[in-house]
Design a protein that fits this description.
Structural class: alpha/beta
Strand content: 15-25%
Distance between the termini: 28 Å
Oligomer: single chain
Radius of gyration: 17 Å
Largest sheet: 8 strands, parallel
Bound molecules: pyridoxal-5'-phosphate
């Protein structure tokens, strides 16, 4: 059995039913993606617009692509025709641009609100007050071409499992607060995207509905991304 197939099968046995696996294929070649595809994997995550664009035309059309990295507003228009979910919405400005571009082709784009839960300076995302303030504006309520499906977050890259667990607990509490305050009647607001290769077990214990896993499936990446 090929390593990717083996890794994927092993991983699937660790992920409970009801938790979605996003295979993070950034920096990995198209043939690796195809191998995971041939094992039944259909959802792939990439963090760069240019990389998704160059890979997607070489791969089957029924792949669901998720953007999981910081998105510049000038790149949004290239993703809108095909992207399944933008997990990394980290500003109101970006959400408005996604809505605007999606409205041009009459699409509704699934989005997650990325929260800043780590202690590292480099991670993007909202805090709870910013999201509350955004949701309460009339402009937010008028956005018809984005669908807010939940939240996403990345824990600190660390060996300190207590810290990681607490960061995931924070994300779950943000999700619950938003759900009860604004999305009770909304059947789409359901996802808590948290957990990567190093911390997905903790994330699942803390209520993750979607894990984003790269290196455990495809092997280590050459450089940090
Ligand atoms: C790279 C990346 C992942 C996956 O990382 P691994 O440690 O390889 O599993 C998950 N989420 C985001 C946002 C990423 O950029």
């Amino acid at each position: 059995m090929s390593p990717i197939k083996q890794n994927l099968n092993q991983l699937k046995s660790l992920i409970p039913e009801g938790v979605t696996l996003v295979a993070v294929s950034k920096t990995k070649p198209v043939i690796d993606i195809l191998e995971a595809y041939n094992c039944g994997q259909r959802i792939f995550g990439e963090n760069r617009t240019q990389e998704i664009l160059s890979k997607k035309d070489l791969l089957p059309g029924d792949i669901n692509w998720h953007l999981i990295g910081h998105l510049q507003t000038n790149k949004v228009k290239y993703l809108i025709p095909f992207i399944s979910m933008i997990q990394s919405v980290d500003s109101f400005k970006l959400l408005k641009v996604i809505n605007h571009e999606a409205s041009k082709i009459d699409r509704i784009v699934d989005c997650l609100l990325q929260f800043y839960i780590a202690t590292e300076e480099t991670k993007f995302g909202f805090d709870l007050e910013e999201v509350r303030a955004m949701i309460e504006t009339d402009e937010f309520k008028s956005l018809k071409n984005v669908r807010i499906c939940g939240v996403m977050g990345m824990a600190t890259y660390s060996d300190n499992t207590d810290q990681i667990r607490n960061e995931f607990k924070s994300l779950l509490s943000y999700f619950r607060e938003l759900k009860s305050a604004y999305f009770v009647e909304n059947k789409y607001f359901n996802e808590i995207s948290m957990g990567m290769s190093g911390d997905f077990r903790i994330a699942i214990e803390e209520g993750s509905t979607m894990v984003r896993i790269g290196s455990v499936i495809f092997g280590e990446r050459q450089k940090l991304n």
